[in-house]
Amino acid sequence: MNRFDTDIIIAGGGLAGATLALALSRVVPSLRVTVVEAYPLSTDALPEDYQPSYDARSTALAWGSRLIFEELGLWQRLSEHATPIRQIHVSDRGRFGATRLTAEEHGQAALGYVADNRWMGLSLMRELQGTQVQWRAPAEVLGMSSQAGGVSVAVKAGEDVVQVSAQCLVVADGGRSGLRESLGFQARHDNYGQNALITNVSTSDSHRFTAFERFTDAGPMALLPGGAPGCPGHQSALVWTLSDSALEALLGLDSEGRCQRLQDRFGWRLGRFTRMGEVSHYPLKLTTVAEPVRPGVALVGNAAHTLHPVAGQGFNLALRGLVTLVEQFQIGVEQGRPLGDLGVLGGYQRAHQQDWQQTVRFSDSLIRIFGQASAPLAAARDAGLMGLDLLPGAKRWFARRAMGVGGRKPVIRGHGVGTGTEPAHHE
Fold it and tell me: Among 40, 85, 259, 426, which one is least packed by beta carbons within 10 Å?
């Protein structure tokens, strides 16, 4: 007889939580997994006539993330609405320094991809329908208490609150949830004093599958290629960093005025900006949790670390962390250990720590170095960007970071899931 109602409870059924559930069902199918999600499950799983709306949000997926989704059997479906990034152009506005990364240089089909968020969610739901993963939705996790060898999780659905016992609780409900704090985790928040504006834009010239990282005296911006996967189209996803006053001024403009303001800051590398879609915005901060595990509970994804979005590293870091956690659960099952034991969860923390520390430093340093307007620093940035083009070793390191294959290579034994498969031409 099972001692617990389920083995793993995942609080949050978004991209991170659903991916974790799918990975566990693929790699450790003996585990009983329950996902608690605040929103009702979608009933329109992968309609045949699916077309992303112009205002659909998207996620940057590194090459290493594609490898993970391939091993989970999901990439073929995801790629139907994922635009390849074949070039990355990094520049400093008003300066000569620039560097260009190309997939061809690294023997790859792409450096990364821009995937439609809703399609990713529907694809995950479709795959999970064929598994034993159980869902409680709409519902939410209110809290957790320890019990012998596991945890008791309070789950609220409607007006009813029930206690569900499990070996371990995984918190995957994002960086804005109060569950992390209510469980006693201490998060560090470093405010950038700026805001991220997210929208889609159209341009007169084709993006030609190029992603632009543009650093300006007012803050960085990124333009990621969008549209049909096989078409070098004219739509890009914009992440624009703005001060409070600049954001307020921009929101007060009409569509034409917003395009003109963007034109002034970005330049003419994509021709004229002809359309800007619906915008969303939020204040920017770097959030990290130094100790993301406690007996019986682990934080993953944005609940464990939230990065600046311009570098496009957030979800890719989260995905590598999910793979690492699945690896540790697999080892725990093989050794017959309670999955909420610190010997198991501590293995996840130690294995993932170097990756998240390096990724945080890489992302944060880009923002802080390029956010300084002093002339000596600007000249140093010029030299650094030009040096990346001239020094193959430095450029290769930068490219590996962008492709998500520069950190630890978690491989789930017996299944082949990993993030660190090297391109054939490397080394």
Answer: 40
**Mean pLDDT lowest among 70-84, 115-129, 360-374:** 360-374
Q: CA–CA separation, 412 vs 119, rounded Å? A: 26
Question: Which pTM value belongs to this model?
Answer: 0.86
Q: What is the dihedral of CA 357, 360, 363, 364, to 10 degrees?
A: -120
Q: Rounded distance, CA 110 to CA 67, Å?
A: 12
pLDDT tens-digit series, residues 112-125: 999 999 999 999 99
CB 131 within 8 A of CB 24: no
Are the C-beta atoms of residues 170 and 161 closer than 8 Å to each other? no
Residue 215 in tokens: 């650093």
Long-range contacts of range 91-94, CB-CB < 8 Å, 24 or more positions apart?
91/212, 91/213, 91/214, 91/215, 91/385, 92/215, 92/216, 92/370, 92/378, 92/381, 92/382, 92/385, 93/214, 93/215, 93/216, 93/217, 93/265, 93/267, 94/216, 94/217
